[in-house]
TrEMBL record:
GO terms for molecular function: cyclic-di-GMP binding. It comes from the Bacteria. Residues 180-286 form the PilZ domain. This is PilZ domain-containing protein. The lineage of its organism: Bacteria, Candidatus Schekmaniibacteriota.
């Protein structure tokens, strides 16, 4: 399998259902419990069904607390749930379910909108999750859904409009990847920059310090400490050859990693707005460097 194919597979849930029939939370757990039985990761079907019956009882007691804790998801009509102890699962294989309800599912909680995107991740045990290394693709998949996709309105809108499950990998690729046919050559540049979400801060000292890893006339790759959502717009001030530039850029992809200094992120940025003066300066600066192969 090619590396690009592996990356596509990395982001695909185990089970995707585009036509959930449940209208209320009471029926959702039963429906999802039945749907996950399709997965070969389920080792005991009767135990799986019992666990989802227990989840229904758990929600009736703790639903309000969960909504308050994860309000940024529920306010977007997203229902996220991690279930940490599922003895019916293979110990080394977490299971991800992603479902869609066009009408929305009534959570029986006041002021909470109906949930339309349902994402559940099941683990054999919390220890089995903690056993996964930071670089494990199973763990990375969970992180990108919780930290990006389920908070990303572009992803949510595209998922609601999806016509066929077979089109899901293509949808994910379009959301997460740069266009592979780059129009401009890239150059290695280890230079500082300041960045922030568009309009977030006008004070340089309040902007995040980042490192530019490579750059072209159409985009750049930066390393930073704070997570940013895909399709967000950043204000970026690169410092190149003793000159400050100013540009806007759209986050096309982002990856999380650990190093001895702690958690870091690298994000691919497409330049969306730059003055003609700064563009001319950038072109002149890049002309003195050797492009990446």
């Amino acid at each position: 399998m090619s590396s690009s194919s592996e990356e596509k597979e990395q982001h695909i849930p185990d089970i995707i259902e585009l036509n959930l029939k449940s209208e209320t939370i009471d029926h959702l757990f039963t429906e999802v419990g039945t749907l996950i039985l399709k997965s070969p990761k389920i080792l005991n079907t009767s135990a799986a069904l019992r666990e989802f019956q227990n989840l229904q009882k758990f929600w009736s007691k703790k639903g309000n607390e969960l909504i308050e804790k994860e309000e940024e998801f529920f306010s977007k009509s997203v229902f996220p749930l991690c279930v940490n102890y599922c003895s019916f699962l293979d110990i080394s294989e977490p299971l991800m379910f992603l479902g869609r309800s066009i009408k929305g599912i009534d959570l029986h909680v006041k002021k909470s909108p109906p949930s339309k995107t349902i994402c559940m991740v099941l683990f054999h045990s919390i220890e089995s999750y903690e056993h996964l290394t930071k670089d494990d693709k199973k763990r990375q998949k969970i992180n990108i859904y919780w930290n990006n996709f389920l908070k990303n309105q572009i992803f949510l809108d595209r998922f609601m409009d999806l016509k066929d499950v077979k089109d899901y990998p293509k949808m994910i690729e379009e959301i997460t990847r740069f266009d592979e046919k780059r129009k401009e050559p890239r150059f290695n540049v280890f230079a500082p920059a300041h960045c922030s979400m568009l309009g977030e801060s006008w004070v340089k000292d309040q902007k995040e310090k980042a490192k530019i890893l490579n750059i072209s006339l159409s985009g750049l790759l930066i390393e930073h400490l704070s997570p940013y959502y895909i399709n967000s717009i950043l204000e970026i001030e690169p410092f190149l050859d003793n000159n400050n530039l100013y540009l806007w850029g759209k986050i096309c992809r982002t990856d999380r990693r650990e190093d001895p200094e702690g958690e870091k992120f690298t994000s691919g940025i497409k330049i969306t707005n730059i003055s003609e003066f700064d563009k001319i300066y950038l072109a002149k600066y890049l002309s003195t460097l050797n492009p990446l192969c």
